[in-house]
Amino acid sequence: MFIVPLEVNSVDTAFAGVTAGIGSSGGFINLGTANANIIAADSTVSYTNGIFTVESTVFAMDGADKIARLYGLTNASLETDTNSEEVVTYDSDTKGFNLSIPTSKTWSVSLAGVADFKDAGYQILRLTEQNTVADALRVKFVRRGPTGTDETVYGYGTLTGYTESIEAGSIVSWEATLQGYGPYRIDLDANP
User: Fold this and answer.
1) Rounded-to-integer distance, Cα 30 and Cα 39, Å
2) Tens digits of per-residue pLDDT, 166-178?
3) DSSP characters over the chain
4) Which tens digit of pLDDT belongs to each residue from 123-142?
5) For residues 45 and 177, what is the distance between their CA atoms, to the nearest angstrom?
6) Which among 53, 172, 47, 87 is positioned nearest to 122, based on CA atoms?
7) What is the rounded average pLDDT for all residues in the chain?
8) Cβ contacts of residue 158 below 8 Å, gap of 6+?
9) What is the pLDDT of residue 24?
């Protein structure tokens, strides 16, 4: 799974110009040649006044910055819900049964993983979640998989509900929820 922190004003829920989750042309994120746009796990991460700096690169916070990969994920499950209104009618078409009219959709991704405290992707996740409210941060995310597939789910979200369990040494077991912000998209694997 990949995340890119950004300011809420940079969210584009219309997905303008996006034709795929991952790609160099029209991709929601561009991993670059030989994954050159992915932040190295051992990179130095700092955060001040709503701006990330990775190594010496100051992020523009516009969604086009380098990409953080979340290593050690044990869960990245998409969950959706459809809200509806019940309509009661007494006409003969429904034979007295209620009608359920869908009114809105919500979605989230339940995240869990095991990471080293010094992993750059993990640090970006923690700092983004911590400053979600104070600095109006969101993330672009792309989940590719499950293992063995090229299915891609992508969109914008708000990181919430972070919990951690300190393991031995510098290892941490963590959980968080990515609450959907606008619609998500999905690129399914094509059948052969």
Assistant:
1) 12
2) 867 789 999 999 9
3) -EEEEEEGGG--TT-TT--EEE-SSSEEE---GGGTTBPPTT--EEEETTEEEETTEEP-SBS-S-BEE-TTEEEEEEEEEEEEEEE---STTTTT--EEEEEEEEEEEEEEEEEETT-HHHHHHHHHHHTTTTTTEEEEEEEE-STT---EEEEEEEEEEEEEEE-STTEEEEEEEEEEEEEEEEEPPPP-
4) 999 999 999 999 999 999 99
5) 22
6) 172
7) 93
8) 132, 137, 138, 139, 178, 179, 181
9) 86
Closest listed residue to residue 124, CA positions, set 28, 21, 20, 44: 44
Tell me which amino acid residue 163 is. Answer: T
State the residue for tokens 């561009």. 30
Which tokens belong to 15?
A: 């997905």
